[in-house]
Amino acid sequence: MPDHAPSDRATDPRVLVDAEDGLPTRAGTAARRALLAHPVVLLVGVVLASVNMRAALASMSPLVSEVSTHFGLSSTASSLVTSVPVLFLGLGAAIAPGLARRFGAELVLFCALLLLGVGILVRVLPSVGALYGGSLLVGTAIALLNVLMPGLIKRDFPDRAAAMTSVYTGAMIAGATVAAAASVPLEKALGGSWQGSLAAWSLLAAVAAVAWLPQVLIARGRTGREAAAPVPSSARSVWRSGLAWQVTLFMGLQSLWTYVLIAWMPTMLTDHGMSRSTAGVVFAFNNLVQVVGAFVVPLLAGRMRGQRPLVVLVSVMVAIGYAGLLVDPASGAWLWAAILGVGQGGGIGLALTLIVLRSGDAHIAARLSGMAQTVGYLLAAVGPFAAGALYQSTGSWTAPILTMLCVCAAALAVGWAAARTRTI
To answer: What is the DSSP letter of 24?
Structure first.
C-alpha cells in the first residue's frame, strides 16, 4: 500500500489496535482498559524501563580502558565490547514483534529486564568470552525494550504520543547520564573493582522488573486474539515503503553517531591529556545535556506539520560538535559535549517520534519500530568498531571524526525525506 496522508484511524476509540500486531479479544480489550485505569502504574513502569535502555551501555564507556588493560585487548578488540551490544540491538529487534505477538508486550518487556540484569552480571565474569557473551545478552534485552516501547506508546497514549516519547527518551538518557557519571567513582569506592562498578547496574534492572510486574498481571488477558480477525494489510507493507526506509536510515545514522561517542568519547579526551575521571564527568555531562534535546525535540515535532527544521537542527549540531572535537578537543571539551548532547538527544528523540508520527496506527508503529531498529542498529553497530579500527590503523582520531561528519551529512539527507507529512 502506498504512503498516504495522515488519518484519525490511530486515535479512533472504536479501533483498539494492539502493539502486538493483532486484534484483541474481548478479554484482551477489557484487560487493556484495566491497565489504562492505572496510569501511575503504567507511567512508572515506562519510566523505569526506559532508564535501563542505555545505562548498561553508558556505564561501560568510562571503564573501557580498564577492561582492555585487564584482558590485554587491542583498540579494535576493545571496540567490540561496545559494538557487540549495538549489533544485538539490531538482531534482537528482529525477534521482538514475534515474541510480543506470542506472549504479549508486557510479559516480553518484563523478561527483557530480567535478561538485562543477567547479562550485566555475566559481563563481569572473569573471561573474555563472558565479557562478550554478557554484552550479547545486554544488547538483546535492550533491543526488546527499544522495539516494543514505541508500539506501547502509540497504543496506550494515542493522543499524547509525542509527549510520552519525550518522557521515555528523557528517562532513557537520564539513566545513561547517571551511569556514565557514577562508573569511575563507583569503581574507586569498591576498591578499584571495575567488575563491581559494572555489576551494580543489574540492581537497576531488577527494580524496573519489579515495577513492571503489575502491568504483566493486569494485562495477562491481552495475549488472546480473535482468530478470524485478519491483520490489516497496511501493517504488512512497511518493508516496501520508501518512507519507512527513510525513517529507518535516519534511525540508523543518528544511532551510529551516538554509539561512536558512547564507545570512544572518554578515550578521545584522555588521549589529549585529560584525566580519566574528568573525561568521565565530561561524558556524563554530554549525556545529561541530551535530556534537553530528547525532551524538547519530540514535543516540538508533535506540534509541527513537518519536522524538517528539526532534522537540520540536530544534524548540524552534531556535526559542529564532532568538528570541535577535531580542532580543539581538550580546552573546548565542555562546549563540544554540550552541543553534541543537544544534537544527540534531539536526534534519538526525533527518530523515535518519526516512527510514531509516520505510522497510521499501532500495528504499523510496532512493525516500523521493529524494522527501523533492526536495520538501524545493525548499521549503528558498524560505528564503534570502524572508529576503533581507523584509530588503530592511523594512530589519530582525525579519520574517525571526518567519517562521522559524512554520517551527519547523510543523516540530514535521509531525515529531510523522512520528515515530510505522510504516514505509512
So the answer is: B
Q: What DSSP line would sit under 232-262, residue for residue?
A: PGGGG-GGG-HHHHHHHHHHHHHHHHHHHHH
Query: What DSSP string runs through 310-333?
Result: HHHHHHHHHHHHHHHHHH-TTTTH
424 occurs within a structural domain: no
Other C-beta atoms closer than 10 Å to the C-beta of 133 total 16
- As given in the structure block, the three cell numbers for residue 410 are 547523510
Alpha carbons 273 and 262: distance in angstroms, whole number: 19
State the cell numbers at 209. Answer: 522488573
Digit-coded pLDDT (tens) for 74-101: 877 877 787 788 788 777 777 887 888 7
Is there a domain that residue 2 lies in?
Answer: no
Q: What is the C-alpha separation between 325 and 260, in angstroms, rounded?
A: 13
CB atoms within 10 A of CB 359: 28
Q: Is residue 351 part of a domain?
A: yes
Provide the β-strand partners of residue 24: 225
Total domains in the fold of the chain: 1
Contact call for residues 356 and 5 (beta carbons, < 8 A): no
111 half-sphere exposure, CB direction, 13 A CA radius: 12
Domain that includes residue 304, residue range: 9-418
Report which residue type is found at 130. Answer: A
End-to-end CA distance of the chain: 8
For the chain (424 residues), the mean pLDDT of every run of 10, in chain order, is 46 39 54 59 82 87 85 80 79 80 85 94 92 91 83 72 76 85 88 91 93 78 44 62 94 93 89 87 89 87 90 97 93 95 93 86 78 86 88 93 97 95 83
Tell me the CA distances in angstroms from 234 to 34, 231, 251, 356, 408, one per residue in order: 28, 8, 21, 15, 32
Convert the pLDDT of each residue in 94-149 to its tens digit. 788 788 878 888 888 899 999 999 999 999 999 999 999 998 899 899 888 887 87
Distance between CA atoms of residues 299 and 256, nearest Å:
23
Question: How many angstroms separate the CA atoms of 271 and 387, rounded?
Answer: 15
